[in-house]
Amino acid sequence: MEFAEASGQEGSVMRLGYGGDVSNVAIAAARQGLSAGMIGAVGDDAFGGKLQALWDREGVDRRHVLRPGGSRTGLYFITYEAAGHVFSYARDGSAASRYTPADLPTADIAAARLFHASAISQGIGLGPCDATFEAIHLAREKGVSISYDTNLRLKLWPLDRARAIIHATAALADILRPGLDDARLLTGRQTPDAIADFYLGLGPRIVVLTLGSEGCLVATPARREVIPCLPVAFVDASGAGDTFTGAFLAEYARTGDEFASARYANVAAALKTRGIGAIEPIPRRAEVEAVLSGEPA
């Protein structure tokens, strides 16, 4: 669950919201028409119940989200500074941090078309990290396409360990989704092209590097293209990258065209930034397609 800083009558307050990058991705994908499900664990508390209700409303399959008795849901807090969002975490001992490979729904992973994972899931504990690797290896053995977001949170783990785990996982991915700032820290490269070269060298077929207000760079061994961002009346960037990822995966599953999928995802992410919060402003397919067909954003 997410607590985000907001303005109140007596100064700053913390506004309760739904968060978690893989949950945001699943909801964004579902709103574009993709059948999506979650794997993980939530707490046996009010927050866990709220997340279950959210996934039910959004049509995200939660059969494989555990809710161990007596456990608690992980929380994080967002404050805003001149440089952007600042994240603080209260995830030690949470239900998700205790997830292990033994908890994986192996049959459903093997039957999926796409499996998406995030470095944040790996950073919250050794068990979830091992489970992520186990799930990816199983999916690869069954021919399932792997999508991986290198989402770096240095408050979860030190840079050297994060770099080693993230790059070992990136080498197993078909679709890699780094962001520019994280990629500079992880790779030591500074330019988008150099970062794309580095990550393609690890083995992914497709690298989709988000560039913030500059859009994204889509790179394959044969082609690369910078796709500009859609100008909109910006309000809040929370969850924009996750919206991009979910929309990209939904469109890629539909078309198999990574460049068209990135154009679609750019529009979806831009539309999301017009509203406050990570979930509520995520657009549905009809809204995205209307803008792509020429309607104003």
UniProtKB/TrEMBL annotation:
Residues 7-283 form the Carbohydrate kinase PfkB domain. SUPFAM superfamilies: Ribokinase-like (SSF53613). Keywords: ATP-binding, Kinase, Nucleotide-binding, Transferase. Pfam families: PfkB. One of its GO terms (molecular function) is kinase activity. The keyword Plastid does not apply. The keyword Signal does not apply. Belongs to the carbohydrate kinase PfkB family. This is Sugar kinase.
